[in-house]
Amino acid sequence: MINMNNISKQFGDLVVLKDISLQVEQGKVVVIIGPSGSGKTTLLRCLNVLEQPEEGSITIDQQTLKFSEKVSKKEIREFRRQTGMVFQTYNLFPHFTAVENVMEGPITVQKVAKAKAREKAVDILTKVGLHEKMEVYPYQLSGGQQQRVGIARAMAIDPKVMLFDEPTSALDPELVGEVLQVMKKLAAEGRTMVVVTHEMSFAKEVADEVLFMDNGMIVERGEPSVLFEHPKEERTKQFLKLIK
Ligand code: ADP
Q: Which is deepest, 86, 107, 137, 143, by most CB within 10 Å?
């Protein structure tokens, strides 16, 4: 489903991603862990071309972007439709209700009629447990509820891949569980997901593969039971010791 080949990205002189390659099969969950500043968010943002790498190529399903050549805005728009992104700080429209937030993508991106978009948004919000909160505004919701709207919004355009950028790290501890629960449900449905998170229990339970990043590189990767219990690389060992 995802094929990332030799991606490099720099901001000015700072090289943030160094020759990253990553494959994700359909229906698999990949969790990315690593210290702050190691390039995890940038890697996700490259996957939906919120950041454009200088080198390499990314394929999602049938579409490939080669970054050594000029990529048009139209190609980027089409490419981006294949992914749904969930942000750390939710990024909801404050002046839209929950249901309007979820309808927005289908209406503007897919040109779906309003009534149909609403129907679908209601279904998705029900699925994330927010049937009672359809008509309220983000400020009337808890952080956990806002993030569940964020997930619903990302799902609304039927993305082939869902990307999660530290989706629980802005939440009070007691609200983390409800968001992880929704993510587990999506994983169990066989959605392809790439998740940056510090929630190691989620990684252990849900990930098919865990990648440890440091300093713009994938230092080590493997099944969670192997990577967490028997890390090979010294840097991985150090990191895991710190977060235990
Ligand atoms: P992580 O998600 O692992 O914390 P990031 O991908 O956010 O790491 O950041 C990697 C590095 O890139 C950091 O040194 C960060 O300061 C830098 N960086 C990220 N975004 C930008 C940007 N837009 N401009 C300049 N530097 C950036």
A: 86
- The answer to whether residue 152 is domain-embedded is yes
| Ligand 1 interacting residues, C-beta cut-off 6 A | 11, 14, 16, 34, 36-42
17 assigned to some structural domain = no
C-alpha angle 112-109-144 in degrees, rounded to nearest 5: 95
30 within a domain of the structure (yes/no): no
Report yes or no on 108 lying in a domain. yes
Region for 100 from its dihedrals, namely left if φ exceeds 0, alpha if ψ lies in -120 to 50, beta otherwise: alpha
Is 244's pLDDT higher than 80?
A: no
Dist. CA 11 → ligand 1 center (Å): 8
Which atom, in ligand 1's list, is nearest to the CA of 165? 2
pTM: 0.95
Q: Domain residues for 107?
A: 98-157
* Protein residue whose Cα sits closest to atom 11 of ligand 1: 37
Overall number of domains in the chain:
1
Closest CA to 101 of 138, 145, 127, 132: 138
pLDDT (tens digit, 9 = 90+) per residue, 151-169? 999 999 999 999 999 999 9
Mean local confidence (pLDDT), 30-49 = 96
Residue of 42, 164, 212, 235 to test ligand 1 pocket, by largest number of atoms within 8 Å of CB:
42
